[in-house]
Amino acid sequence: MPDQRLTRYLEQAGGEALLSAEPGLVRMLTGHAGDVATGPSPFQLPAMVLAPGDGPARLICSADEAAAGELVHTYEGFTAGPIDPPSGAWQALSEALSEALAMVAPGARAVLVDPATVPASVVWSLGERGAPAPDLLSLGSVKNDAELAAIEASVRLCDAGHVAARAATVAGATELDVWAGVTAAIERAAGRRVAMIADLVSGPRTAEVGGPPTDRRLDSGDLLICDLVPRLDGLWGDSCATWAVGEAPAWAEPLRAACLEALRVGLDALRPGALSGDVDALVRSVVAASGYEYPHHTGHGVGFRWHEQPRIVPGGSTRLEAGMVVALEPGGYSDGRGLRVEQVAVVTENGCRVLSAHPLGLAANDGAAA
Amino acid sequence: MPDQRLTRYLEQAGGEALLSAEPGLVRMLTGHAGDVATGPSPFQLPAMVLAPGDGPARLICSADEAAAGELVHTYEGFTAGPIDPPSGAWQALSEALSEALAMVAPGARAVLVDPATVPASVVWSLGERGAPAPDLLSLGSVKNDAELAAIEASVRLCDAGHVAARAATVAGATELDVWAGVTAAIERAAGRRVAMIADLVSGPRTAEVGGPPTDRRLDSGDLLICDLVPRLDGLWGDSCATWAVGEAPAWAEPLRAACLEALRVGLDALRPGALSGDVDALVRSVVAASGYEYPHHTGHGVGFRWHEQPRIVPGGSTRLEAGMVVALEPGGYSDGRGLRVEQVAVVTENGCRVLSAHPLGLAANDGAAA
């Protein structure tokens, strides 16, 4: 019944249960995909998961957030009465604790608490029973089939967003005009609002690697870097491409070819047993041979969070396993110039399977229906 | 130098300093308007404010978030190296603490900690120096002139969103089509991405009071409730109107008239010294006389959070003061029917000044240029 990934984590870390308010871990352990897009609410604390090693995980959230079928402990949310979510959440969590940890001696340091997301009120109330949970970024790096399908659905949203962004790319339009096309296409494809992280930078801004869309107007010959990271059903997708407004400058195609070759080499290296740091060095070297470099990671795990293990970074010591989902994103940047490509792949028993299907050409109309 | 509102709060609550990660309080005390729209980041903790009663407030955040000119203590954020935001944030906060609380005896219970937003790691590290901060929802209920101007700018975004929503209202369009018009208009008007809470419900969904836009198609004779709550420069606006797709059903105009009358009566009652519970009862009674009722608050403060003091609710005991910003939103709901109107006003020395300027008519083209 408990998630085997959690059971192993608790055995290694030495705890009876995990308590986290990290939306990705809540999704992984309870199936609950809460909203992340509007910051703290005065009516509720973030939804939390209490997951023991030897029983079902429990969701602690306001009644507004709870969905049917979840093993959930709720407290009042939106109300015209007095509001006090810290005590409401603590009462619901107390109930969950007494059911989930009935066998644990009071006073034992049983509950490993996510140090970055669980709020202060809960820590005080837990007292000596709570201790910091180590290294949570690795928990959930290997996905099951249902999770892979959900990530693939998010990657399909990326594809739809790229097609719309390219269609909206015309000289004189602003980055925000392109962005409006992206959000409309992705939310229509999802049939609901979608939380999204995005880089959308054009012209000289491409040298800055990323940044949100602004009212800068696209000029003929500009490049546009579009990196879309939507969250659907609690799981994140990722994707990046770079294309030109009208005709691309002469330096762009050689750089694009180098980045595509680096991406291909990286995808070839994704297989069980590969070392994350080796993949990083390999991909980085291909771009370096073109005379460019990138200041960021080569790639990262994606799914429960938009950046998780395995991190494909210099010196990375993670051994890849089947079921890990990796975004690779080599790029090149220099004065006034920037270009990046990115695809997401899942590591399989003997290699990897690419999930991304968005166009990667320099022509804005690449991939458009004839 | 310290914010007088904070000084009074700390005197009443009995603490040397306040520590909060609530984005509204961070904005109020440091001017920093961080992003709220994508949930927790693996690279950083939420930005925090450490505000002593007798000195300047300090921002604790990752280097990625810090803006020039802020009194800021930073740690590394986005990186290709190892990531450990809890210890980074704690080191930056330790530095801020030792500078801000140099005169406070070690071990004293000096720091009042926001129980809903400050993460566990910081609480453990503070140890005996941290204690729960009471009643933070009232802190910042009275705004200064610069804050009022920022709220007014957010309310202008609401106005732009309503005009776009009405223009996109045609039979056969989906709620998400209308929503795409709203987001494009608001983000173009702001010149940047804008975090937004919204109800956008049509037809029978209006009886549910609120909810996000879906792929439901608008039908002739449907009503559409549109409640837009954008955040610009860290301050929230609010607004609601209800209009018809084509010709409105016969029951709609009498209900709209009752809600508008309730709104007018409520605005007339907004003045220094008025009791929030009295305003609630007055507005609620006007709607009740029409045979309808609403299950939610009559209104709420808005600005640093999207719902704050003064809460206009049954039994509310807050005395209004000049500088408070209040959203009033009477509505009526019954089987398959729903309608709501909302305006935002600031309490002045002898009444109030309405900030909202969005159309409130039942015809979708109300307010459209001739």
Please describe the topology of this protein.
2 copies of one chain form a homodimer.
Chain A lengths: L3 H10 L3 E4 L2 H8 L17 E5 L5 E5 L9 E4 L9 H16 L10 E3 L6 H7 L3 E3 L12 H23 L7 H16 L4 E8 L20 E10 L2 E2 L3 E5 L7 H18 L6 H14 L9 E3 L6 E5 L12 E4 L2 E4 L2 E4 L2 E6 L2 E4 L16
Parallel strand pairs in A: 1-5, 3-4, 5-6
Antiparallel strand pairs in A: 1-2, 2-3, 7-8, 8-9, 8-10, 11-12, 11-13, 13-16, 14-15, 16-17
Helix pairs in contact in A: 5-6, 7-8
Overall pLDDT of chain A: 95
Distance linking N and C termini of chain A: 51 Å
Counting H and I runs of at least 4 residues, what is the number of helices of chain A?
A: 8
Tally of extended strands of chain A? 17
Oligomeric organization of the protein chains: homodimer
Which structural class best describes the helix and strand composition of chain A? alpha+beta
Determine Rg of chain A (CA atoms, Å).
22 Å
Greatest contact pair? A-B, 60 and 59 residues
Largest sheet of chain A: 6 strands, mixed
Low-confidence stretches of chain A: none
Quick rundown:
The structure is a homodimer of 370-residue chains. Chain A is of the alpha+beta class and 370 residues long.
Report what the structure shows:
Two copies of one chain form a homodimer. Chain A is α+β, with helices and mostly antiparallel strands and 370 residues long. Chain A has eight helices and 17 strands. Chain A has helices spanning 4-13, 23-30, 85-100, 120-126, 145-167, 175-190, 252-269, 276-289; strands spanning 17-20, 48-52, 58-62, 72-75, 111-113, 130-132, 195-202, 223-232, 235-236, 240-244, 299-301, 308-312, 325-328, 331-334, 337-340, 343-348, 351-354. In chain A, the strands form four sheets. Chain A has a six-stranded mixed β-sheet with strand order 4-3-2-1-5-6. A five-stranded antiparallel β-sheet of chain A has the order 12-11-13-16-17. In chain A, a hairpin with a 2-residue loop joins strand 8 (223-232) and strand 9. In chain A, helix 7 (252-269) packs antiparallel against helix 8. The first copy, chain A, is globular, with a radius of gyration of 22 Å. The relative contact order of chain A is 0.12. The mean pLDDT of chain A is 95. Chains A and B meet through helix 4, helix 6 and strand 7 of A and helix 4, helix 6 and strand 7 of B.
